[in-house]
Design brief:
The chain is mainly beta and 416 residues long. The chain has one domain. The chain is built from 6 helices and 17 strands. A 16-stranded antiparallel barrel has the order 2-3-4-5-6-7-8-9-10-11-12-13-14-15-16-17. A hairpin with a 4-residue loop joins strand 7 and strand 8. It is globular. The protein starts with a helix and ends in an 8-residue tail after the last helix. The N terminus and C terminus are likely disordered.
Length: 416
């Protein structure tokens, strides 16, 4: 609560002492709507059709306070509709990245101060960790969740880490060692959200602890992004196989690492090809997935008249840890060694305010459980947007982050 109050006071102070506005508009209002229709044609839990939707409303205010740039962000969202993963397919990686319990939620509410020649920044408030850490570039075209944040990281914690839709209180510092090498460090609520999916939660406790994360990022004219990251929870966790132990006690050590590499592969005629690879690990004694590998190939600038269209093929491999497999065997629901999601997607921007995203997905061993047939899913997503830079941000599920929009628009390689 103190962090939220401090953020509010800083917003009020910046309104009182702002002496000039930056290059862009002082106040930007944004809105977007995503509708997502999916049909599980075979396999999984049940054949059927699901429609999910999400509405985002936000504002961003830029000002200068005592010579330092100040940005204030406030965004809320409403989710609703059916759950294709939970009700039809039964996958554990979430094939629809806007699937969420219905209702209104506070997405982000933060203040950021920029200072120094290399534009170091400090951001505090209600934050989405994935808006800055483990954020995709060319993989952002896909609609399955693991291409937005690695499964081995997204499945951690009491209610997941502070990523969409359960964002949490946090503070983040970022800067650059050079034009090509950047760094960022963050501390976030270790148990964001609530069990009843309330609008938001400002509660933090020593028992639930914090999630600490750090990342180094390299970029160049050819390399869109190369990252190495590490994360750790400060709280103790119950082992995932506690039911099989004689005297289980909570333990510390829930930490992991990830790395990604996203680069230009070359050009064939006028078509640009990009490839990406991401891998990460998490301790099997606390988490279902202990190893994750994701890879993708994307093609952009398919036609001169439609430079923003994109075609992508991605695969997400989630390995299930031995302790979880032992628990499944004990419960009489044997697990497989892994779950694999494959997605073929095409993104067509019909205008600056509307996009269509047809996709085909295949899930091998949904839920990493034996006895559930492989699943084939057909999908069609549409996105409506109004406001500066909002359409591509809506696609990624992170308002304000349009790195991929700039990439496919043809900006110089490596520019962020």
């Amino acid at each position: 609560m103190r962090i939220a109050c401090g953020a509010f006071l800083l917003v009020a102070g910046s309104a009182a002492f702002a002496d000039d506005i930056g290059d862009g508009p002082g106040l930007q209002l944004n809105a977007s709507y995503i509708g997502d229709l999916r049909r599980n044609t075979t396999g999984g839990l049940e054949v059927g059709t699901a429609y999910a939707h999400r509405l985002d409303l936000g504002l961003v205010w830029n000002a200068t306070v005592f010579g330092n740039g100040v940005t204030t962000n406030l965004s809320v969202m409403h989710m609703g509709g059916d759950a294709v993963s939970a009700e039809l397919v039964g996958d554990l990686q979430s094939i629809n990245n806007i699937e969420s319990p219905p209702g209104w939620k506070l997405y982000e509410s933060w203040v950021e101060i920029a200072f120094g020649e290399r534009a170091g920044t400090v951001r505090a408030g209600m934050l989405d960790l994935n808006a800055e850490f483990d954020t995709p570039v060319s993989q952002g075209v896909f609609t399955a969740s693991p291409f937005g944040v690695g499964t081995e990281l997204s499945q951690t914690g009491l209610r997941g880490p502070a990523v969409w839709p359960n964002t949490g209180l946090g503070v983040r510092a970022a800067g650059a060692f050079s034009d090509r090498l950047a760094w960022r460090l963050g501390a976030y609520d270790g148990a964001p959200g609530t069990d009843d999916d309330a609008f938001t939660s400002f509660e933090i406790s020593e028992e639930e602890g914090a999630l600490l994360i750090g990342e180094l990022e390299y970029s160049s004219e050819r390399v869109h992004k190369a990252t190495v990251g590490s994360w750790a929870y400060t709280a103790a966790f119950e082992r995932i196989d506690a039911a099989l132990l004689a005297d289980p006690v909570p333990e510390h050590g829930n930490h992991g690492f990830y790395a990604s590499f996203d680069t230009a592969l070359g050009r064939l005629a006028d078509v640009d090809f990009d490839g990406s690879l991401r891998a990460g690990i998490a301790p099997a004694r606390f988490n279902v997935v202990d190893r994750y590998v994701g890879a993708a190939l994307t093609a952009t600038h398919l036609w001169d008249a439609r430079p923003a269209d994109a075609l992508g093929l991605g695969i997400a491999y989630a390995h299930v840890g031995a302790p979880y497999q032992q628990v499944c065997d004990f419960d009489g629901t044997p697990a497989t060694a892994s779950e694999i999601v494959v997605e073929l997607v095409y993104r067509a921007e019909l205008a600056s305010w509307i996009a269509l995203v047809p996709n085909l997905q295949f899930v091998d061993s949904p839920g990493a459980l034996q006895g559930i047939d492989d699943s084939w899913i057909l999908g069609l997503r549409f996105e409506l947007a109004a406001g500066h830079g909002w359409l591509m941000a809506a696609r990624q599920g992170k308002p304000g982050d349009d790195a991929y929009a700039r990439h496919i628009a043809g900006e110089p390689r490596g520019k962020k």
